[in-house]
From TrEMBL:
Pfam families: GDPD. Residues 42-283 form the GP-PDE domain. This is Glycerophosphodiester phosphodiesterase. PROSITE patterns: GP_PDE. GO terms for molecular function: phosphoric diester hydrolase activity. Residues 1-24 form the signal peptide.
Length: 287
């Protein structure tokens, strides 16, 4: 069974590279035929949970991602002033809660009192900033967990704390790569890999890595299993080079159907997306 995937723009069927982004993302015509088998292979990663439908990095978003049958929920992990691991993206609480201040300057009790849901919608009022351990306990064995260490340079020892939490739950020898750790801080990933040699790791790559070399990919491959770049710099050549280095590629962050289709056409291994319904594997009717 095959499914024709098309994007119509007037009389044309095409999509140009994204304007205003760094790198040389090539235009891709989105009129390819994607087989059901290919759809099944595409890994669907719910970015900060199903963050297009619920407030990011909250239990509501993670439960929504699980409900929508994502293969992974992606979480951002930081550390409070008193050493608690919490899920939050920004290094301050200002954008996604009703509080202010740096994550690392606030205690867990102070962060726990904040409302992390109202900014997204009144129905999410009272959502709390969850702990790393709460997320592991709620979702281990149910859905994959892609753990991003956010700004680990601000939190000395965070790699050890993450490792301790995983080892305590026997998640340091994961089946089917259902635990992955990634970061933009590549030194942190080397440290984490030494602590958790059986856990797959990934390097995140911003727009400045558009011209990543074979030598750089080979170096990453000594400790990483994934090269996960900004979606706007992904090309057929990059995908091939990453695969040649024996790594997989999960670009971030798809927020439209067109963007997801472009990544399908480029042959990536997975898509990190705010809208898991754009990755066709598990069509879900939203209410």
């Amino acid at each position: 069974m095959k499914r024709m995937v098309t994007i119509l723009a007037g009389a044309g069927i095409a999509m140009s590279s994204f304007a205003g982004t760094a790198g040389a993302a090539e235009p891709v015509e989105l009129n390819s035929v994607i087989s059901k088998q290919e759809q099944q292979k595409m890994i669907n990663v719910a970015h900060r949970g199903a963050s297009g439908h619920a407030p990011e990095n909250t239990m509501a978003a993670f439960h929504k991602g699980f409900e929508m049958k994502a293969d992974y929920i992606e979480i951002d992990v930081q550390m409070t002033k008193d050493g608690e691991l919490v899920a939050i993206h920004d290094t301050t609480v200002d954008r996604t809660t009703d509080g202010t201040g740096a994550v690392g300057s606030l205690t867990f009790d102070e962060i726990r009192q904040l409302d992390a849901g109202s900014w997204f919608g009144p129905e999410f009022a009272g959502e709390k900033v969850p702990t790393f351990e709460e997320i592991l306990d709620a979702f281990r064995g149910k859905v994959g967990i892609l753990i991003e260490l956010k700004a680990p340079e601000l939190y000395p020892g965070i790699e050890e704390k993450v490792a301790e939490a995983l080892i305590e739950r026997n998640l340091h020898n994961p089946n089917n790569e259902k635990i992955i750790i990634q970061s933009f801080n590549h030194q942190s990933m080397q440290t984490s890999k030494e602590l958790l040699p059986n856990v797959p790791h990934g390097v995140l790559a911003g727009a400045s890595w558009a011209n990543v070399t074979d030598e750089q990919l080979a170096e990453f491959a000594t400790y990483a299993d994934y090269f996960n770049p900004n979606m706007n710099i992904v090309t057929h050549e990059m995908v091939a080079d990453v695969h040649d280095a024996d790594m997989k590629i999960y670009p971030y962050t798809s927020r439209s159907q067109e963007q997801a289709l472009r990544l399908f056409d480029l042959g990536v291994d997975g898509i990190i997306t705010d809208y898991t319904e754009h990755v066709y594997k598990h069509p879900v009717k939203n209410h």
